[in-house]
Structures are given as structure tokens and as C-alpha cells.
Design a protein that fits this description.
mainly alpha; elongated
Length: 89
Amino acid sequence: MNPKEEQTNSEVTNLEDESFIEQQKDASYIDKQIEKNKLDEKSIDIEYKFGWSSYSEITNGRFAMIGFLAIILIELISKQSFLKWAGIL
């Protein structure tokens, strides 16, 4: 690639940057971007269902993982089994 082509590419990039900056200064452009970035109210709405739903299964799975991690940490810190630590054995 010769220096003349590099200069042309950088000039094009500079012109694109300038037009982008001009576009951002326009108030209507900013308003359109804000509207585009707003979340749809339906996407935020979470339905809580009683019984066997995917939400309850995910929640129960997460609590089970936290509980299992807690047991492992207790065994590592106390250097004895969880059952012995809890006084079951």
C-alpha cells in the first residue's frame, strides 16, 4: 500500500468521524437514540407462577448450588466433615 492510499483512507475516516460528531449534536438524533435504548415494559415483567415452572426450577437450582458450595467451604475451613460439624454424627 502506498502512502497516498493511506492518506486517502485516513481522510475518509476523519470525514466520517466529523459527520458522526455533527449527527450527535442534533437533538432529534439524541432523542431517537434514547427511545431506541429504552427497554420494552413487557421484557421487564416477570411472571411468578406457583408450582412446577421454569422460574422456580432455576431458583431452586441456584439455591442448591449455593448450599452445596457452603457445605464445601465449611468442610474446608473446619477441616472436618459437614455431618460431624453439624453434630449429626
